């Protein structure tokens, strides 16, 4: 991780009674940043949540459309949202929204996330289940209009550790003065334009500011990841 060059701030929890919550803030530049709290939720609590969600959430593996082709989404999913919100559509798929009242545990998890992020507000949740190293999420940005221009997305990880990659989007025009096509320029991007986080059991990663406008992220396949990982991304729909 290229944290040294990037004004990374590492701090320990102020309350000595609290589990040490190593927090790292990476300034991505141009009004984007990522906060990573490595141990937000104690391990035992995280495993309880993991097993409950693994067994009780109505997981589905929908067919999605990417570049005009239909694929089975390479992970299970479930969507929860407050009533009356604009419906979510991604990759040609519109998930049915379950209610927070259907799964009261999700409200407890939301409270724990909000405790770490005072002043934040979330009204929807996309859950993902990666059933092994072949499951993944490809490069994308959560830049749907319904999240507004500077969405805060808080992502809690439970279970098997996986890598999370962030990569700067190519400039639309030749913003660096180059005549090369965008795809070629992306390949040449410098190290400051890429970051990797190892997402631990019980960790929280928060993307803020213009991260969805200027960056893409992914959780790639990993041959050695043999366990299940559950991920909860809390979002605000406007
Ligand atoms: O599983 C993760 O950590 C990321 C999931 C994600 O990016 C998404 O659901 O939009
Ligand atoms: Mn995403």
Automatic annotation (TrEMBL):
Q: What is its EC number?
A: 1.14.11.33
* InterPro entries documented for this protein: AlkB-like (IPR027450), AlkB-like_sf (IPR037151), ALKBH2 (IPR032852), Oxoglu/Fe-dep_dioxygenase_dom (IPR005123)
Instruction: State if Oxidoreductase is listed as a keyword.
Output: yes
Q: Which Pfam families match?
A: 2OG-FeII_Oxy_2
GO terms (molecular function) for this protein are: broad specificity oxidative DNA demethylase activity
Instruction: Tell me where on the tree of life, at the top rank, the source sits.
Output: Eukaryota
Q: Which UniProt keywords apply?
A: Dioxygenase, Oxidoreductase
Group of enzyme by EC: oxidoreductase
Residues covered by the Fe2OG dioxygenase domain: 121-238
Q: Family assignment?
A: Belongs to the alkB family.
What is the name attached to this protein's record?
Alpha-ketoglutarate-dependent dioxygenase alkB 2
Q: Which organism is it from?
A: Stylosanthes scabra
């Amino acid at each position: 991780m290229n944290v040294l060059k990037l004004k990374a701030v590492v701090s320990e929890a102020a309350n000595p009674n609290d589990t040490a919550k190593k927090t790292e803030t990476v300034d991505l530049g141009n009004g984007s940043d990522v906060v990573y709290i490595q141990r937000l939720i104690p391990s035992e609590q995280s495993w309880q949540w993991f097993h409950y969600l693994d067994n009780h959430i109505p997981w589905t593996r929908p067919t999605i459309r990417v570049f005009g082709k239909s694929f089975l989404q390479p992970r299970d999913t479930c969507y929860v949202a407050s009533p009356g919100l604009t419906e979510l559509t991604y990759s040609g798929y519109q998930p049915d929204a379950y209610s927070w009242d259907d799964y009261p545990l999700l409200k407890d998890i939301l409270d724990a996330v909000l405790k770490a992020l005072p002043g934040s507000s979330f009204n929807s949740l996309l859950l993902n289940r990666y059933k092994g190293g072949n499951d993944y999420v490809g490069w994308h940005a959560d830049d749907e209009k319904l999240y507004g221009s500077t969405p805060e997305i808080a992502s809690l990880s439970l279970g098997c550790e996986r890598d999370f990659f962030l990569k700067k989007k190519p400039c639309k025009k030749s913003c660096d003065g180059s005549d090369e096509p965008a795809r070629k320029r992306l390949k040449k991007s410098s190290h400051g334009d890429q970051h990797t986080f190892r997402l631990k059991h019980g960790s929280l990663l928060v993307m803020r500011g213009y991260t969805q406008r200027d960056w893409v992220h992914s959780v790639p396949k990993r041959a050695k990841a043999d366990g299940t990982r559950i991920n909860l991304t809390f979002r605000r729909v406007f």
